[in-house]
Amino acid sequence: MPSPSILSVAKLSPLFASQLDAAFSVHDRLHQTDPAAFAAAAPAIRAIAASGESKVDAELIAQLPKLEIISVMGVGYDGIDVAAAKARGAVVTHTPNVLNDDVADLAIGLMLSAARQLPAADRYVRAGSWSKGPMPLARKMSGARLGLVGMGRIGQAIAHRAAAFGMSIAYTSRSPKAGVAFKYFPSATALAAESDFLVLITPGGAGTRKLVNAEVLAALGSKGILVNVARGSVVDESALIDALERGVIGGAGLDVFESEPNVPERLRALPHVVLAPHIGSATSQTRQAMADLAFGNLQAHFAGKPLLSPVPECQ
Ligand code: NAP
Known about the structure:
This protein is of the alpha/beta class and 315 residues long. The protein has two domains: 5-98 and 285-314, Rossmann fold; 100-275, Rossmann fold (3-Layer(aba) Sandwich), CATH 3.40.50.720. Helices cover 37% and strands 16% of the residues. It contains 13 helices and twelve strands. It has helices at 14-23, 30-33, 35-41, 58-62, 82-87, 100-116, 118-126, 153-164, 188-193, 214-220, 237-245, 265-268, 284-302; strands at residues 5-8, 25-28, 45-51, 69-73, 91-93, 145-149, 168-172, 183-185, 197-200, 225-228, 251-254, 273-275. The strands form two sheets. Strands 8-7-6-9-10-11-12 form a seven-stranded parallel β-sheet. A five-stranded parallel β-sheet has the order 2-1-3-4-5. The longest helix has 19 residues, at 284-302. The radius of gyration is 21 Å and the shape is elongated. The model has no long low-confidence stretch (mean pLDDT 98). The structure holds NADP nicotinamide-adenine-dinucleotide phosphate.
């Protein structure tokens, strides 16, 4: 039997792509590179392989009459039109849990880097400035108040780590989480007003777009530090730049941006902001686990076995 045809919609991790190439007939970004060849191949395509940042819209889905499954290598799937996939009878899978440790580690790393100014300290030593005097004093993280916007799998992993720093922990989400003992706030503004560090770890998409706006940043205050490991869309980026430039908040650690990989020049010019190129899950170990799970979902589907990790809407 010929191997199933699948479309990869992004430049995928080699850890995922190599497994796909061995098992399937893969059309690598054909819809972008060769529309005529794509039109010829589309009627036979049964699966889409995507990354967490991929866009799979209703228009693309409409061109794939035999589509059965979209496998996302990532936990966030805000770029996938799940309703259109379901309407076509296709399921969507993602890779939750296997990346919790890495994203939580990075959140703590960005909190420490922004509070203790580690990139600036590194630049200070390299520039030979130490001999002229000490760096300005930084702010303490241990014992401070952490506000988590989102208290899901990764939010709870961040809270676990923050507890070891003696931080007091509170959170907001659309509803209080059963079995979570931390203090709940009904809005991001109310949480920010009681936080020294505000860490964002919600999904992206329409439900969280610009959830953190000028009002939330004003509530966080001039000593507050914002850390975003969620999605760039969760923050009003121009309001954030304005707040950082005017000292409305004290600093930020950012792994995600509104229009990746483009980071505004005004943001890059700010010395008290720590920037990372969306590396939340970017370790060899975790990317391998994500690739294995994303591939495992496709394998299970084509073997007629239960899916390993469908998105909640497809469970
Ligand atoms: P999860 O377990 O589904 O948790 C999501 C949390 O966000 C829940 O507590 C949810 O609570 C809350 N939430 C959802 N919509 C909200 C809203 N409108 N307002 C306030 N809170 C809201 O997801 P996860 O596995 O922890 O992953 C979270 C996100 O992290 C992913 O979707 C992805 O965007 C991001 N991420 C980033 C990286 C990176 O590389 N930086 C890596 C992995 C994941 P309610 O449903 O009660 O609101």
